[in-house]
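Q: You know discrete backbone vocabularies at least as well as I do. I have my own habits and do not want them to colour yours. No explanation is needed for now; the record alone will do.
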Amino acid sequence: MKKNQFLLASAGSGKTTYLVKLALQSEGNILITTFTEQNKEEILNKIKELNNEIIPLNITVQTWFSFLIQHGAKPYQGCLTERDITGMQLVNSPSGLKYINRNNRPVYYSEADVDNHYFTKDYRIYSDKLAKFVVKCNTLNKNAVIDRISSIYSHILVDEVQDLAGYDLEIIKLLFNSDSIIILAGDPRQVTYLTHFSKKNKKYQNGNIKFFIQDVCNKKKEICYIDEKSLKDSWRNSQEICDIANKVFPDFPSSKCLHDKVSEHQGIYLVRNKDINMYLKAYNPVQLRDSLSKQVNSNFAVFNFGASKGKTFDRVLIYPTVDMIKWIKDSSTPLKFQTQCKLYVALTRAIFSVGIVCDETLNISGIKQYNP
């Protein structure tokens, strides 16, 4: 096996299972890290499922932010500040605002003003500055941060790596050059969350980590092997679902169905608004929507597109956005990247069938009309 690997995965390919099996088979102390708490819990549940309900003592599972605070920021915070970090402040927009100028543009605290650039008043580090702080500490301490991490963990496995951005990618690059074995797995078509939005490495932000590895990390020599084949097919979706999902990102390797499960109601269906309740009662699909503002039948399970990532259901009913409907009518219609990701995630949650709410009667290959 190559030392460092990036596994480009498809939805339903079993990437989390792959990483967990690798962790259980490996010697030394193993870290499995991922972006969200939800993904962390799924990893822990998968370890228990495959290891008689036991989490081995040599395997640590934690979120990316927790990992950076515990092993990156706190041990070396003294090189930048005399105060203690009290926690993290999650932000969804650029942090460290100083004031709004006369042209109504934001002005931010400079990096030299450590207290205000990186921290809130109660000294919680901003989530969009955490990785940057860790990289700065590592530089000032002559790579001691990365050396310490690699002395603790022989293997570092990163699940849902497509969610990392900005300075997080710099940390990945540093880890590649450490003594630890680094295994990344992710599906660039499922970027429904990002650790932060940053000018740093911006062109690699929308699921383009493959190109970050190619252009930056492997520029002088191959330090990370890119595997686009091992996890390209789906153990989850029926072939009808794979065929439609493949069209959302046509430049990616096509997935095929690896299982032989069948159902009397299988495939992709257009469901008229007037037939929604009948369809729900007949097949009990999980409803998927773009946001809470979309009204659905509260008697049946529902998730937002982003929150459904990583989950598997027998059937789903999608409430598409206007742009998604345009794409369904003509798959050559361009979609914004985030809309592409949401549609791909929604389509690939189901094993057997996908219903799509649409009042138009369309003649599209691979999609049937639901007629109760």
